């Protein structure tokens, strides 16, 4: 990944964006220290949540929230 200093990024932003649109990525640095990454924008595709969509397909045990004493002791470091 190519490192570009801030001055170069400011003066050549249009050229950098053209290259980014083609898939390249750049690290923008301030005095040699990386501060940002310039990469192609990726739109995240999300679907709206549909409550009840899995109704009847999942079964939750009656005791799902009961504490397992053995696991609790392991977390507390009482058992190895």
From TrEMBL:
Protein name listed in UniProt: Antitoxin
InterPro entries (UniProt xref): Antitoxin_Phd/YefM, phD-YefM_TA_antitoxins, YefM-like_sf
Family label: Belongs to the phD/YefM antitoxin family.
Originating species: Stanieria cyanosphaera (strain ATCC 29371 / PCC 7437)
A Pfam family reported for this protein in Swiss-Prot or TrEMBL: PhdYeFM_antitox
Role noted for this protein: Antitoxin component of a type II toxin-antitoxin (TA) system.
């Amino acid at each position: 990944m190519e490192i570009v200093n801030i001055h170069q990024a400011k003066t050549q932003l249009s050229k950098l964006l053209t290259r980014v649109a083609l898939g390249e990525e750049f690290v923008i640095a301030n005095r040699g220290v990386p501060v940002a990454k310039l990469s192609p924008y990726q739109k995240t595709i999300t679907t709206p949540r549909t409550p009840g969509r899995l109704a009847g397909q999942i079964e939750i045990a009656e005791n799902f929230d009961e504490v397992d004493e053995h696991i609790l002791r392991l977390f507390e470091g009482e058992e190895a």
